[in-house]
């Protein structure tokens, strides 16, 4: 693997941890959701860290900021999908507590990163 700067970012490291949480959570979803909600949630989670990495590699400030904004948008997308999963009874409040705390913290870090990227 590459030894590049984005891996040192706490926001990127936390986004990788979120992916692990999402994969573990969705393992218990019904099999018929494999190409629906499971796939959507996993792709949204992966998109967060991928866009942070791509943004960090950009030399153009506008590009960098835009990728960080896309990462934050993917986080909001994932939040919506978690709410749907909760409403469908695929996960319970206890399972979501850790994930929601991670997401809240990650949202704050991304927002800070965006505001500092000018």
Name the quaternary structure: single chain
Largest sheet: none
CATH superfamily label: 23S rRNA-intervening sequence
Order of helices and strands: HHHH
Tell me the radius of gyration.
Answer: 15 Å
Query: How would you sum up the global shape?
Result: elongated
Structural class: mainly alpha
What would the CATH topology be?
A: de novo design (two linked rop proteins)
Q: What is the arithmetic mean of pLDDT?
A: 94
Binned strand content: under 5%
Please estimate the helix content: over 70%
Low-pLDDT segments, ≥5 res:
none
What's the number of domains? 1
Beta strand count: 0
Distance between the termini: 29 Å
Instruction: Give the helix tally.
Output: 4
State the name of the first-level CATH class. Mainly Alpha
Known CATH architecture: Up-down Bundle
Structural overview:
By secondary structure, the chain is an all-alpha fold. The protein has one domain (5-116): de novo design (two linked rop proteins) (Up-down Bundle). Helix content is 75%, strand content 0%. The chain has four helices and no strands. It has helices at residues 10-26, 37-57, 61-87, 93-116. Helix 1 packs antiparallel against helix 2 (37-57), helix 1 runs antiparallel to helix 4 and helix 2 (37-57) packs antiparallel against helix 3. The mean pLDDT is 94.
Provide a concise account of the structure shown.
The chain contains four helices and no strands. The protein is mainly alpha-helical.
Describe the secondary-structure layout.
Blueprint: H1 10-26, H2 37-57, H3 61-87, H4 93-116
Helix pairs in contact: 1-2, 1-4, 2-3, 3-4
């Amino acid at each position: 693997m590459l030894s590049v700067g984005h891996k040192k970012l706490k926001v990127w490291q936390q986004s990788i941890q979120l992916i692990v949480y999402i994969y573990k959570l969705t393992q218990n979803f019904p099999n018929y959701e494999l190409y629906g909600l499971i796939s959507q949630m996993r792709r949204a989670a992966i998109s967060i860290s991928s866009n942070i990495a791509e943004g960090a590699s950009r030399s153009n400030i506008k590009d960098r900021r835009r990728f960080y904004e896309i990462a934050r948008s993917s986080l909001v997308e994932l939040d919506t999908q978690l709410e749907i999963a909760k409403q469908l009874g695929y996960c319970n409040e206890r399972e979501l507590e850790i994930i929601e705390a991670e997401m809240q913290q990650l949202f704050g870090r991304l927002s800070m990163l965006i505001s500092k990227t000018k």
